[in-house]
Design brief:
By secondary structure, this protein is α/β, with parallel strands linked by helices. The protein is 40% helix and 22% strand. It is built from 15 helices and 24 strands. The protein is globular, with a radius of gyration of 23 Å.
């Protein structure tokens, strides 16, 4: 029988008698765990516990918060193979990427530990005005309170880490609602943080749908902030419901990569394979649109198709596997329908396109047009479109032709073109000579337009999670 799990509220593991949610392995549809579904009363308990937890964690010295976070990082490294197995089973992520996520998450907590000791205010030159000359001024950064963290399925540990770690580093309490499809690794993380010495109530874990548990957190006035990663429609609804709360939204994208004639095509091919198809394309910054200068277009497509054909599709627990399943049959069917629409509108399948069990083969399309959903929306599947262009200005316009603006990649050996891209691309991050899928966990990360509000990355997230308190002393 599938293992039954409990959740953490107020420092206690609870939920034995609660209604259960089945956690399903998306590769073979087996039930791998049953987690308690939170009731309104459970969420209320979590909010009350978080209020007490905030008093404890905000009063904990920075060096002690740093020690808790660093011990958590150590425990993740210690248990990384177990953690990778959990991620592979519940998210369908291939072993190599699941193990990489565990290692990245440990680094995320280590960065948070460093930032916990580095957060500070600064002096304000009061004598810049004759009115305040003779006064001494400075400001502090103070924790804002209880943070509701709503995380997605595609990085079920590291995107939790990007919400929980900076919140604790800044001295806030957290109520975490992980995706119902992938809650098991979040429970494991909570276990490790308790082991690391986190005060009771500083982290509380509730599981349930966005329409019930999520809305209760979003609407409750005792929470000071909501940090959410997910789809733009849900992000817009959260923003409309949250009232005066602070909100960070990391939403969708259809990330472009531009490959100029003077760019390194061979390097671009290898990185585009990873950027397009890792985690079955279920990454916010997956490569979805590739624009190649017409003189190198055929060369790139031939090499890209050949490299993609070498990928192994199958059981994510097989250590030779490159591509596992989509997160659910529903999402697989949605992706296939978008693919069929693109074909009817004139797109050609250069590679892949087939379904193997719950897996979609890595798929390369040519002949795409802007009205196709695989081009204008976030496909969130192993489907990428390759299009030619003539001038660099045209490529920049094509890349910007999107409601999204998360990250973009540009391959060029011309520094002037690189800086022109930096200036012209309306995105949160421009990655030169790499794909937009590149991210390290201490850099500012977030998007423009419908890709979201605010920034993640430990120091930048902590700025969102703190208030400035000005102090003015009349000498």
């Amino acid at each position: 029988m599938a293992k039954r799990y409990r959740v953490l509220i107020g420092g206690e593991w609870v939920g034995d008698g609660a209604k259960g949610i089945e956690v399903v392995n998306p590769y073979d549809d087996t039930v791998i765990g049953i987690v308690p579904e939170a009731s309104a009363e459970d969420v209320e308990r979590a909010i009350v516990a978080a209020g007490q937890g905030f008093l404890a964690i905000s009063g904990t010295p920075a060096y002690q918060r740093a020690e808790i976070l660093e011990r958590t990082a150590e425990f993740i490294r210690r248990d990384k193979e177990e953690i990778a197995g959990i991620i592979a089973r519940e998210a369908g992520k291939s072993w190599r990427y699941a193990l990489s996520e565990a290692e990245r998450s440990a680094e995320t907590f280590s960065f948070a530990a460093q930032e916990a000791k580095a957060t500070h205010g600064e002096l304000v030159p009061m004598d810049a005005s004759p009115v305040s000359a003779g006064r001494f001024g400075f400001y502090l950064r103070t924790p804002i309170g209880i943070i509701g963290a709503i995380s997605p399925f595609n990085f079920p540990l590291n995107l939790v880490a990007h919400k929980v770690a900076p919140a604790i580093a800044a001295g806030n309490a957290v109520i975490l609602k992980p995706a119902t499809k992938t809650p098991l690794v979040a429970i494991k993380l909570a276990e490790l943080m308790v082991e690391a010495g986190l005060p009771a109530g500083a982290l509380n874990l509730v599981i349930g749908s966005g329409a019930t548990v999520g809305n209760q957190l979003v609407e409750d006035e005792r929470l000071a902030m909501i940090t959410f990663t997910g789809s733009p429609p849900v992000g817009k609804e959260i923003k409309a419901r949250c009232g005066m709360k602070r909100v960070t939204l990391e939403l969708g994208s259809n990330s472009p990569t531009i490959i100029e004639a003077d760019g390194n095509v061979d390097a671009a091919v290898g990185r585009c394979v990873v950027g397009s198809f890792a985690n079955s394309g279920q990454v916010c910054i997956s490569v979805q649109r590739i624009f190649v200068q017409r003189g190198r277009y055929d060369e790139f497509v031939d090499k890209f198709v050949a490299a993609t054909g070498r990928l192994q599709v199958g059981d994510p627990l097989d250590k030779g596997c490159d591509i596992g399943p989509m997160i659910s049959r529903k999402e697989l069917e949605r992706a296939v329908s978008w693919l069929e629409e693109a074909k009817k509108l004139g797109a050609k399948v250069a590679a892949g396109g087939g379904v193997l069990g719950n897996c979609l083969q890595p798929t390369i399309l040519t002949g795409g047009t802007r009205e196709m959903q695989v081009m204008c929306s976030e496909v969130f599947a192993p489907i990428v479109s390759v299009l030619p262009y003539d001038t660099f200005d045209e490529a920049l316009e094509m890349a910007n032709d999107s409601v999204y603006g998360l990250q973009a990649g540009v391959y060029t050996s011309d520094i002037n073109k690189a800086f022109l891209a930096v200036k012209r691309l309306d995105v949160g991050g421009v990655i030169i000579n790499d794909v937009p899928t590149f991210r390290v966990d201490h850099m500012p990360y977030g998007g423009n337009k419908q890709s979201g509000l605010g920034r993640e990355g430990l120091r930048y997230a902590m700025e969102e999670m703190t208030n400035i308190k000005m102090v003015c002393i009349n000498l």
